[in-house]
Amino acid sequence: MEWFTYIIINIFETLLRFIPFPCKTGIIRIGNPDRNSPVFLTVNFHLTVTRVKRALSGLDAYLLVANSRGINVWCAATGGLFTNHDVISVLKVSGIEDLVDHRKVILPQLAGTGVEVITIKKKTGWKVIWGPVYAKDIPDFLENNLKKDMSMRKTKFDFTQQIEMAVAWAFLISLILSLILIPIWKQAILSFNILTWTFSLLIFISFPFYRKYFQSNKNFSRGGFQLISWLILIIGLIGYGLFINPLPVGITIRWGILLSIVIFAITIDILGCTPIFKSGFHTDRLLKVTLDENKCKGVGFCQQVCPGDCFEIDKNKKIATIPRPENCVHCGACIAQCPCDALYFQSPKGEILTPESIRKYKLNLMGKRLAKIKI
Asked: Which residues contact 120 (CB under 8 A, 6 or more apart)?
């Protein structure tokens, strides 16, 4: 029965992925935790809590649920909806301090853009340990003495995630446009929905075959992909009208408009729909993470929070290096966490976005920071 409920929650809340789904904050006891049991912390996005609880099943642990306004970890932390204050609040108010003897809390790695290790330690006495990116890796993380290898640190966009994103977009678009079509073109709703779901699934499932072009060709990622998708569907529409079922001009124009809307909605920010590329709307995508070697002490926080596995730490020289800058998604987590302020964003013109700005100003939905920088 629990398995069935888990499946239903995943299906329902994946369909409504773009809508905040808050749940109760506070303490959840997993198994039979004692005073030495690990303490995990996550946000109150219901789907996230459900998945973390499942990953912890069979273990004895405490799960703290902090307020993120019902938004998932990465989006909430990056957008300023999951901050130091929210972590401090749940640590102080939940009563967890009376239940355990240690002062170690495991946070999801993707919270690194909005929650600062040093601030939490200073104001609460709790040491933050960065857990894996994905909840499913928590058991291995515990078995490995709370240490992460590269596979636990790096974000992926695997088949399951591709399906989830395709379903979320298809449901949202088909729902909105179906409501619009009811009074004006009811007979096209079924065909429209089939087309929308098919196109969305094809776009995301085929992502591994064209992802390399996003890295190597800027024009492809800034309009070329959308143009190619539009041409394919329009040619298909014309071919259908010519060779299968002749369509009146008016109907052809209507379908052309609908196809354009579907393509625009699904592909306009295809980069931002993945966890491995920066949104095409975000101006930060043009910035470069820069390392000041004179300040770096090789602490390694940057490596622990980087979702692109961009960093390596030379323990002998006690310095960080950035051997894979092409993997950077410009989330700013490395900059926010560096205790030495050795990392910062730099624009192509040489202007600097300081660590203080990254910590203070968060991104809105269009990727704008209150601290503006010329790019």
From this structure: 84, 87, 88, 91, 105, 126, 128
* Residues 286, 347 contacting (CB under 8 angstroms): yes
pTM, entire model: 0.91
- pLDDT at position 372: 42
- 280-291 burial code (b ≥16 CB/10 A, e <16): bebbbbebebbb
The pair phi, psi for residue 312, each rounded to 5°, is -135, 150
Instruction: Record the tokens describing residue 166, joined without a space.
Output: 């395709």
pLDDT for position 371: 43
**Residue position matching structure tokens 């299968």:** 244
Q: What is the CATH number of domain 2-153?
A: 3.40.50.11600
Alpha-carbon distance values, 84 to 68, 123, 269 (Å): 11, 10, 30
Q: Which residue, among 311, 315, 334, 328, has the nearest Cα to 117 in the 3D structure? A: 334
- Per-10-residue mean pLDDT of the chain, 375 residues long, equals 88 94 97 98 98 96 98 94 97 98 98 96 98 97 94 96 96 95 95 95 94 77 83 90 90 92 89 86 79 95 96 93 92 95 92 91 67 40
Domains 2-153 and 283-360 share a fold: no
The domains of the chain are located at: 2-153, 159-267, 283-360
3-state secondary structure of 215: helix
How big is the chain by its Cα radius of gyration, in Å?
23
Topology at the third CATH level for domain 283-360: Alpha-Beta Plaits (3.30.70)
